[in-house]
Amino acid sequence: ALIMEQIVMALEMYFYRELYVKYNEMKIREEFMTLFLEQIERKMWNEQQALALGESYGLRRLSEYRIVFLEMDQVCARKFNTVNFSKREERYILVYDWMFHMLGEENEILIFPQKSNWRYVCLIQSRKNDYLKQLLHVYEMVKEKFQQDIIIAQGGMVSSLMNIKNSYRQAEQSLIDGNKDEGCPYLLSYKPQNMKE
User: Fold this and answer.
1) Structure-derived torsion over alpha carbons of residues 99, 105, 106, 108, reported in degrees to the nearest 10
2) Distance between CA 50 and CA 125 in Å, rounded?
3) What is residue 176's three-state secondary structure?
4) Ramachandran assignment for 124, one of left (phi > 0), alpha (psi -120 to 50 degrees), beta (any other)
5) Whose CA, among 47, 101, 109, 192, lies 20 to 30 Å from 7?
6) Contact partners, residue 116, CB within 8 Å, separation at least 6
7) 67-87 tens-digit pLDDT
8) pLDDT by residue (tens digit) across 127-153?
9) How many CB atoms are located within 10 Å of the residue 196 CB?
10) Which segments in the chain show pLDDT lower than 70?
């Protein structure tokens, strides 16, 4: 019995060590995305600088970009506890790690955590329109593997990386009053606010 307890304790320590390693990797990606959005909005970086700084995260020069949020359903007001992970924090980290490996193969969908809102920010950088199929597959797999519902909210497509904050705001607005897809009630799309849009 004592040997079994020691084995279980060793496995728990290994699990938590790996979890904190993953969390630290997430934190670096989250800090980059926050800085990236702020610098783009303030026009402190030009497109060339943004691409150079974001290259190690998979950022590429393309003609279209879009922001999509994957938000954990039933978000509570509780802050993300970075010191003592509960099951909720563990699941958030594990879902992120799984999605990062699943989506990151071709660098068309870059995923960044945003733990303050218990969501993941996807930067779509693909001319193809099959990203939605991938995200719907992610929804189904997260529901099946992690017993977790997520809401997918997409902003509009922008033609320049320098306008990515517009797509980000639209994704935020989609969470509030986005158009629901009839076949996928968890998919929200940006609703144009005026005739110009």
Assistant:
1) 10
2) 14
3) helix
4) beta
5) 101
6) 79, 80
7) 999 998 655 667 888 878 888
8) 666 788 888 999 999 999 988 889 999
9) 5
10) 73-77, 105-106, 127-129, 194-197
SS3 (DSSP) at 110: strand
Strand residue runs (E) in 1-144: 66-72, 109-114, 119-124
Give the separation between CA 82 and CA 76, rounded to whole angstroms: 16
DSSP state of 158: B
User: How far is residue 95's CA from residue 90's CA, in Å, rounded to a whole number?
Assistant: 9
Ramachandran category for residue 74: left, alpha or beta (phi over 0 → left; psi -120 to 50 → alpha): left
Strands, DSSP E only, in the chain?
Answer: 66-72, 109-114, 119-124, 150-154, 179-180, 187-189
Q: pLDDT at position 16, please?
A: 78
For the record, the structure tokens of 60 come out as 């590429």
Q: Fill in the DSSP letter of residue 104.
A: T
How many residues would you count in the chain? 197
pLDDT at 195: 56
Cβ density class 89-112: b for 16+ within 10 Å, e for less: bebbbebbbebbeebeeeebbbbb
Structure tokens at 196: 């110009």
Q: Please, which residues bridge with residue 150 across strands? A: 72
